[in-house]
Amino acid sequence: MKRIxxxxxxxxxxxxxxxxxxxxFILVPxxxxxxxxxxxxxxxNIIAGTPGKWNEFANYMxxxxxxxxxxxxxxxxxxxxxxxxxxxxxxxxxxxxxxSNLRGARFIRSIMMAPWIVPTIISGLIWMxxxxxxxxxxxxxxxxxxFGKVADFxxxxxxxxxxxxxxxxxxxxxxxxxxxxxxxxxxxxxEETLEAATVDGANSVNxxxxxxIPYMKSIIKVTTSMSIIENFKQFPLIWTMxxxxxxxxxxxxxxxxxREAFVSNNLGSGAAVTTIWMLLMILVxxxxxxxxxxxxxx
Length: 298
Known about the structure:
Order of helices and strands: HEHEHHHHHHHHHHHHH
Largest sheet: 2 strands, antiparallel
CATH superfamily of the largest domain: MetI-like
Number of strands: 2
CATH topology of the largest domain: MetI-like fold
């Protein structure tokens, strides 16, 4: 047996456990969910042990005739777009600070991962306490800065501000990891090139956009793709803080899928929402990578 064949067999042996786990716990459940989305499949089918029945796209037709799906899609895109953009901007700002010689940067770097380590549900409970309309920290801060003119400030009870409140909680948890990844990207920017640009008269803004960003494109692409996926599938934080309310103002596709499957007891409809949700997420990631690749070519 040739050496290259042995190496390939050895590599396959190492990859086999991961392939088996991926197929069993990711691909098979996804395929099963897609099949269920075309069936009339409810909780009673599980209890009775009976299979679902093909319902001729009834789940999808019902969803698209219902305003809840389009509203959830809109809310999902607003949430994902806002959080991803803010996360990148704030994460980059933090990364630049951590990569500088600013006093205390090392201390900040050592403790900044604390929010990311906290479980998502615990994060939601912390921010629910901060937003608590009777005794929450935010109410106290608002009263101080408005000199008592704004006595009541219920962030999560107001449909106009509830999604913003969840987005702030999501940013608090996710920015540390983004900043850490971007710091690693800043380490790849050659100091010699930055010094040469400074000598040629380039200011800090020009150096950032024409040198730093191009050298960091690969890490930016990975970080942003991870952020898109993470926020598209965000469920525990939203469910813990608002449950999709008030007045469905924070009902994303994740929340709608859970409600259809386990509140309305219609697993087929929930699977249909999940299928639409998954396809939209894949489409957004693909479009982002296409656009990012075109900017690389330019």
